[in-house]
Design goal:
The chain is of the alpha+beta class and 369 residues long. The protein has 10 helices and 18 strands. Helix 1 runs antiparallel to helix 4, helix 6 runs antiparallel to helix 7 and helix 8 crosses helix 10.
């Protein structure tokens, strides 16, 4: 089984699938799981996501009773991911050239494919298994956001998209807000009549200086990402654009920080005689599980079944897990053995990939009761 799993992973990473060009890898996955007995369909999200493929949604029919379990992984990779040539040394896969490997998230995809193959070939009854393969995850979780609630029905969903050794269980992820603000002042000659001008850059600087930024507490961060304004040294800048964000594992705290940052910008503009237009966007809502929640307990028990020590952790980053959780399905994110993702140093230990499949199979067995 491990050789087949390795071959599947190598085949996957050799398929170019940058964000927006997931059709070929989606076709590969659809054929593989279709041959394993899954019903397969694509939704119609190309327009909203900008991808050449819709999300791939699949179901492996139940052969026995139990809780419905969903598994999810995304089909796209960050650049540079074109022309990946994987090499194996000492059981670890890396890219031979100046590209990423693509284990994010093709490790998760390969594991799901192998899981359904094992379940369809095995004799033990299993409950209904759903699969959600999303597009355009790396450009803002767009594929997951486009899923309908009807496609997100399960007693438990596991998103296979966290770095680290198998056994890692993400139990909490943040609510995340971003903003774009445009400060409007009045242009004037900086050397001849600066009194007639109102500097949008100064407004932005004063607003930023009054904000609490960085790590605000153990659960909360805030940041200014970009500042752009002005045209020349001798012109009082009439416009300045600022982008930034805040996020927290506590939803109410994220909202409070958003309001404080917004207030700082409006106060600075008003004080200096200008205006500001601020547009906030909720990128995704957070989720937070207690350590003794039944969903967590099931995955921890499955880890014990295969001799893996579970490691529960909270993260400051978001994933499709945030979106799926907000759509009403209890969702955890699992580590899939990948390391140094989004870099040319990315690697995947094949022993960890095999363990990941064992864990998913153990979860299904537990779900069957």
């Amino acid at each position: 089984m491990t050789d087949r799993l390795t071959d599947t992973f190598l085949d996957l990473v050799r398929i170019d699938s940058p964000t927006g060009r997931e059709a070929e890898v989606a076709g590969f996955v659809a054929a593989a799981i279709g041959d394993a007995g899954c019903s397969v369909r694509f939704d119609e999200t190309q327009v909203s996501t900008g991808s050449d493929s819709g999300n791939l949604i699949a179901t492996l029919p139940a052969t026995g009773p139990g809780k419905t379990v969903a598994f999810s992984a995304h089909l796209d990779c960050v650049e540079p991911c074109t022309g990946v040539e994987p090499v194996i040394a000492d059981g670890v896969v890396r890219a031979a050239g100046e590209t990423i490997l693509g284990g994010d998230d093709k490790s998760g995809i390969a594991a799901i494919i192998e899981l359904v193959r094992r379940l369809s070939e095995g004799q033990s009854p299993h409950p209904l298994v759903r699969m959600l393969f999303t597009v355009s995850e790396e450009s803002g979780l767009l594929g997951a956001k486009a899923l309908t609630p009807a496609d997100c029905v399960a007693d438990l969903c596991l998103v296979l998209d966290a770095a680290g050794d198998v056994g890692g269980i993400v139990t909490a992820a943040p609510t995340h807000y971003t903003f774009r603000a445009v400060f409007n002042g009045r242009a004037a000659h900086a050397g001849v009549e600066p009194e007639r001008g109102v500097s949008a850059v100064v407004m932005a600087a004063r607003a930023i200086a009054s904000m609490e930024l960085g790590r605000l507490d153990a659960e909360t961060t805030a940041n200014i990402g970009t500042v752009y304004g002005g045209s020349a040294t001798n012109v009082i800048a009439p416009l300045c654009e600022v982008t930034g964000e805040c996020r927290s594992l506590d939803h109410a705290r994220a909202s409070a920080v958003r309001d404080a940052m917004d207030g700082s910008m409006r106060a600075a503009a008003d004080e200096l005689g200008g205006t500001v237009e601020v547009v906030w966007k909720l990128e995704y809502e957070g989720f937070n599980f207690d350590e003794d929640a039944p969903e967590v307990a099931l995955v921890r028990a499955a880890c014990a079944d295969i001799g893996v020590e579970p490691h529960l952790f909270r993260t400051g980053g978001g994933s499709d897990g945030n979106v799926l959780s907000a759509k009403g399905v209890p969702t955890l994110v699992l580590s899939s053995g990948m390391t140094d993702v989004h870099s040319e140093d990315e690697s995947l230990d094949l022993a960890q990939l095999a363990l990941l499949v064992d864990l998913l199979e153990a979860v299904v067995r537990r779900a069957a009761g």
